[in-house]
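A reminder from the course coordinator: this example appears on the midterm review sheet, so study it carefully.

Given structure:
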């Protein structure tokens, strides 16, 4: 049986921490930044954890 390949889109978007948790970028920081307040843009920087409902699917795409 062939090996399962990693989903390259998922590989670029998600990161697995040392404890096995999944991290992702927050939405809303790719474009239309002029319309957003500085406070809102600051809050959207950094990473957050993937929702519990999505972890199974993301782990499958990452081959874990």
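Designed residues:
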């Amino acid at each position: 049986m062939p090996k399962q390949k990693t989903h390259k889109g998922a590989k670029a978007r998600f990161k697995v921490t040392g404890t096995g948790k999944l991290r992702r970028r927050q939405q809303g920081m790719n474009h239309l930044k002029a319309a957003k307040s500085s406070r809102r843009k600051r809050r959207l920087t950094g990473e957050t954890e993937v929702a519990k409902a999505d972890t199974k699917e993301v782990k499958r795409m990452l081959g874990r």
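The beta strands are 14-16, 22-25, 47-49. The radius of gyration is 15 Å.
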